[in-house]
Amino acid sequence: MKAHHPNAPKIALALAGGGPLGAIYEVGALCALEESLIGINFNRLHHYVGVSAGAFVAASLANGMTPRELCAAFIESDAGQGVAFDPSWLMQPAYGEFARRGLMLPGLLARAAWQVAVQGKPLARALESMGPVLPTGAFSNQQVHTQLARLFSGKGRSNDFRKLKARLTLVATHLDSSEPTPFGRPGWDHVPISQAVQASSALPGLFPPVEIEGQHYVDGALKKTMHASVALDDGVDLLICLNPLVPFDAVTHTASDASQATRPRKIPRIVDGGLTSVLSQTFRSMIHSRMELGMKHYASQYPHTDIVLFEPDHSDLELYLANTFSYGQRRHLAEHAYQQTRQMLRARASVLAKQLHGHGIRLNHAALDAPKRQLLPSMPPATRLGRSMVQLQQSLNDLSDLTAPRLSGPSH
Fold first, then answer.
1. What is the mean pLDDT of residues 98-124?
2. I want to staple 381 with a disulfide (CB 3.0 to 4.6 A). Which of 80, 166, 387, 410 is the partner?
3. Res 166: pLDDT
């Protein structure tokens, strides 16, 4: 690891989880932050912390992939970075898990029959012993490990925590103790980064626990939402946090709709969305309240660190209605996250300018105020000419960014 310049501010990035939707939001938001903040390089930070879906994004950034390159690979499925993300990776049935559990079935059935016929136990009690036959996950996430290992084996990248130029911590939960495991920290840095991402994102019920050296690990968000203290304990000067999932404020959204007769009110009340809407609101509220407590703790325990949190607006119906595990609308949702983050930066410009100024960062007003700026073209370019036009547009955007310091003037 390269020595950190003694006079340079130590900046860390903490990324929470949220399934494929969470990763899509973080990629879109990071693209907006990258072009809207002058003086920060998201590939040269002091420390990256990732949990669940955020582990994938954090590991990619620490490996030198820019937010735009992440967008190309993850949102556009462009194989230019070595591996194009394929959503089918996450939809392969966990055949191995089904087979292992299925082998238990004859013995457990015989045991249940013995308990009913000989011991006289009620059938319901006897069926309780059949629990171990149920698979611990419906889908296999082995391809996450396999494909990321390929991605991180490319030139200038590494699948070894110890060979990275920056600190990377990917947090999973040790299943048997329910304690967080910080892969990448001393004692845990020999585990391949790709396998740590697999473990950190193994949501119970959806994916089986990941076995590493005889121990089993599941999603890192089970214990904490952000795990930002891992970076704060390093004594960083600035911590930037991204949290993709927030509870939906239907009251505020309905009130704003009342003044806009042309805007449809799809969910004036959470209950109108049915069971999935109620469960989504419950899940989001639980993890967000836990994160809020954590942020208050960070502010009091680390008073010398500036902490900046970016997350969706609580009245953002677009992100709330999106399926957390859906990948089909990734282009639309990434663009939405990109534009919403730009809007948030404009709205918080004066406060953010003060928070970031001491760390050598200022707002790129030229990029923020460009009304037609987009993350993605309206349709995926299907021809060589189309792709060339997209590259030309990106080059023009980059040129605008390079001239921004002279155009935007000092931050205020």
1. 81
2. 387
3. 95
**What confidence tens digit (pLDDT) does each residue in 386-411 have?**
444 445 445 544 444 444 443 333 33
Q: Give percent helix, percent strand, percent coil of the chain, each to the nearest 5.
A: 50, 10, 40
Q: Are 312 and 32 spatial neighbours (Cβ–Cβ below 8 Å)?
A: no
Q: Rounded to an integer, what distance in angstroms lies between the CA atom of residue 350 and that of residue 283? A: 33
Radius of gyration of the chain (CA): 23
The answer to whether 184 touches 167, Cβ cutoff 8 Å, is yes
Written as one string, the DSSP assignment of 103-158 is TTHHHHHHHHHHHHHTS---HHHHHHTTGGGS-SBSB--HHHHHHHHHHTTSTT--
For residue 169, the cross-strand partners are 49
* Tokens found for residue 396: 């023009």
Q: How far apart are CA 82 and CA 89, in angstroms?
A: 16
Contact indicator for 23, 334 with CB cutoff of 8 Å: no
142-151 vs 53-62: helix crossing angle, rounded to 10: 10
Q: Decide: residue 6, CB within 10 A, 0-12 exposed, 13-18 middle, 19+ buried.
A: exposed
Of 78-87, 156-165, 250-259, which gets the smallest average pLDDT? 250-259
Of the candidates 26, 47, 35, which has an alpha carbon nearest to the alpha carbon of residue 394? 35
Alpha helices of 152-306 — where are they, by DSSP H? 193-200, 229-232, 250-258, 274-301
**Distance in Å from the first CA to the final CA of the chain:** 36
In sequence order, which residues have a C-beta less than 8 Å from that of residue 262 and are 6 or more positions away?
A: none
Confidence of residue 309 (pLDDT cuts 50, 70, 90): very high
Beta strands at 37-38 and 362-363: parallel, antiparallel or unpaired: antiparallel
DSSP string, 42-67: TTS-SEEEEETHHHHHHHHHHTT--H
Q: How far apart (Å, rounded) are the C-alpha atoms in residues 247 and 270?
A: 10
pTM given for the model: 0.84
Q: Contact, 140 vs 94, CB < 8 A?
A: yes
32-59 pLDDT per residue, tens: 999 999 999 999 999 999 999 999 999 9
